[in-house]
From TrEMBL:
PANTHER family: TRANSMEMBRANE PROTEIN 144. It comes from Skeletonema marinoi. The keyword Membrane applies. This is TMEM144 family transporter. GO terms for molecular function: carbohydrate transmembrane transporter activity.
């Protein structure tokens, strides 16, 4: 194993640890108490990424200046720091940010509604598969045993990932009984509340609306029901489609994985001088904040159109809850920044397929948080299944590591 590969594996481990933990504050007490809006939390993350990248760039530039003086005195000095300036900013970072902001927002919703362990499990599976497609089939990254060996390694890895996702999604029997009783009560009382038949349908149901945190109604706080209600326009249907938030959370986890797998692709096309050291992270932080601002402007515009008033549209935007959410949001951004920087290093040292796929062992970390902190995985059988699936994941990772051609 070469020095670059060793650095890449260490960076991948740090990325997995950070990526597996940055979702913990999303489901914390503060976020649950205020029912934080996903875009609000994503905004805190973006600001933290920009702030931390700025601090690191500042330290990097100081070390670069000192290094220049040291090189003059010591010709055998090999370690290099590349000084970053705004001329090193790459527009390719905007493509990464455009993928990251909506993907991260969807990820927050998934963790809040479906759970940390299952959400990270789903998007990790998606990321591994998409990374395989990008790395092997498009970028032509080589495996010692060829494409067949890569397919075998990914297959083993995905089997383990699917097992983790399955055992992470199990619900306690007590919760199932409560849900069953609640459904029986609803079924018994529904005829009493709907005696008016279809005539009770209000004009509001004829309008297009979405009962979802990320699309609040005019002047009303985000809903915290367990079911989403899609009110279809009259030309389509006058019935309401009920979508459980848990299932929608699973879909958003899949969407986050789909977008997240492509975030680092622009790194391959960016100019070399803009990706040296932590330069790309700084470009990404700047681009992410700009995209977040545009996302809020777009959301304001949509709310204004719904309310037919710019002022009411602004008032319907969710609160940032600075007092409650500043610490959790910044902590999530800090952990994500560490994971992002480590992920960039692992990709540069190991390649897109190897580096980014190894980073997705973060689902093991998130699963441990789900088991011991949030109690998301009930029962000894499910915990044992989760641990066994984790072992399979490590086998897949080892197969990829052994088969990877430098």
């Amino acid at each position: 194993m070469t020095t670059d590969e060793l650095i890449g594996f260490i960076a991948a481990f740090c990325a997995a640890l950070s990526f597996g933990s940055y979702g913990v504050p999303m489901k914390g007490e503060a976020a649950t108490r205020v029912d934080v809006d996903p875009l609000v939390f994503q905004s805190y993350k973006a600001f933290a990424v920009l702030l931390i990248s700025s601090i690191l760039i500042y330290c990097n530039n100081i070390l670069a200046d000192e290094e220049n003086d040291h090189i003059i005195d010591n010709a055998n000095y090999n370690w290099t720091f590349h000084k970053w300036s705004f001329s090193d900013f790459t527009p390719w970072a905007f493509l990464s940010a455009i993928l990251w902001v909506p993907g991260g927002t969807a990820g927050v919703y998934a963790v809040r509604r479906a759970g940390l362990a299952i959400s990270v499990g789903i998007w990790s599976c998606v990321i591994v598969i998409i990374s395989f497609i990008w790395g092997v089939l498009i970028f032509g990254e080589k495996q010692k045993s060829g494409a067949l060996g890569a397919v075998k390694a990914v297959s083993v890895l995905c089997i383990g990932l699917c097992g983790i996702a399955y055992f992470s999604s199990s619900e306690p029997e007590s919760k199932k009984k409560v849900d069953s009783r609640l459904k029986e009560v609803i079924d018994e009382t529904t005829p009493l509340s709907s005696s008016g038949g279809d005539d009770t349908t209000s004009e509001g149901e004829d309008q297009v609306s979405l009962d979802l945190e990320s699309f609040p109604h005019c002047g009303q706080p985000p809903h915290s029901h367990q079911t989403l209600h899609f009110h279809l326009p009259p030309l389509i249907s006058k019935r309401t489609i009920h979508v459980p938030k848990y299932h929608l959370g699973l879909f958003f986890a899949f969407l986050n994985g789909l977008l997240a797998a492509t975030i680092m692709i622009p790194l391959h096309y960016a100019p070399p001088h803009s990706t040296q050291g932590i330069g790309y992270s700084m470009s990404f932080g700047i681009a992410a904040m700009i995209v977040v601002v545009f996302a809020w402007l777009l959301r304001w515009m949509v709310c204004a159109l719904q309310c037919r008033s710019v002022v009411k549209g602004y008032q319907s935007l969710p609160s940032f809850h600075f007092k409650d959410m500043l610490r959790p949001g910044m902590l999530a951004g800090l952990l994500y920044s560490i994971g992002n920087l480590s992920g960039i290093v692992s990709i540069q040292k190991l390649g897109n397929f190897m580096g980014y796929s190894l980073n997705q062992s973060s689902m093991i970390v998130s699963g441990l948080w789900g088991i011991f902190y949030y109690k998301e995985i009930p029962g000894f059988k499910n915990i044992l299944g989760f641990i066994s699936s984790s072992v399979i994941v490590f086998v897949g990772i080892l197969l990829m590591g052994r088969d990877h051609q430098a």
